Amino acid sequence: MKVDIAIVGGGLVGASLALALARVNLKVVLIEAQPFGAAAQPSFDDRTTALSNGSRRIFEGIGVWPLIEREATAIRRIHISDQGRFGFARLDAREQQLQALGFVVINRVMGAALWQRLEEAAVTILAPARVVSAELKDQHRELLCRLDSDATVTVEARLTIAADGAHSAVREAAGIGATHWDYDQHAIVTNVFTQRFHDYVAYERFTSAGPLALLPMTEGRVGLIWTMAPALASAMGELPDGEFLARLQDAFGFRLGRFTRVGQRQLYPLALTRSDEHIAPRLAVVGNAAQALHPIAGQGFNLGLRDAASLAEVLADAQAASGNGAEFDAGDGVLLERYREWRTADRGRIVGFTDGLVRLFTQPFGPIKLARDLGLLAFDLFPSAKDALSQLSLGAAGRIPRLARGGELGRR
Length: 412
Fold this sequence. Notes:
Helix content: 25-40%
Number of domains: 1
């Protein structure tokens, strides 16, 4: 099978990129290890994701947002606090002249919407199929894919896109290494019902155990992401529901009244993984294959989706400039270099911001705690600081992909 582009990995970012490229006159194949639309796809679980406004616009541009909107909960305010200390900060959408600071959506809902649109798109799908080898040839990469039936399919792609996660086999096969930093933390992820309505407020609270986030959801629920040391997380995960809720109540307080019910708890190890490069000959790296972040600032998926939108824009613009002729080469090194240069600043800024927050708010030392509390108060008092953080969290730092601005591919 000869194609312009082969996307390896059909998770949230890979599927989004496939849909974006379906709007461009290119032959695209999406290769996914799980069956088409399967809930077992690691990205399509019951975790929640906070979408920035830029990500919402990207989903609008690829036709997915109408399928998601009813299940999305707006974040109208953000409240940040430090347990047992005086520091706090607040962000309000109205102060930023926005309808919402972002939207909370269950990953499973996003996955179902993406795969529904893929069924309607001009994208060839190989699923379930695993890439067992990936070799660079003169004008393409040759991917040997093994199907569930044990049959094999060979794909010759002018451009291969690694969207297969933090431990990307395709990235590694291309000789791109990655830096891995284990935070020695696990996240407890679950849904919690509260006595009081969340009123569309997202809470970030820095507790003695670790950062705790509560995100507003449908049905009056909140999504909990509580980060702590692995042994403590394991023990907390095994507690009876009542005792777990009591510990959560003690750490968070009563801004939402009493916690009344908790869903199934899942534990996820946390680390920073950062690929050494975004590109190799006839290869581009996107999403978690490029960078997998700590969830403390909710930026990982939004950053990965901007990878996809940026790469799609580079390809769409170049193809339009070529007059859609047969000479267009999606894997041309000049195009890949444009993508690399575009993504370098955004990635560096968001990775540094997220990693810095993790280190700042997990330090046990008194002087550092005092400094961060003073910093939170200063942030709360200065509108310019709020504007800067709001723009950063909205994905509005640096060059913004056209889709994230509400535009269309191929139209400047």
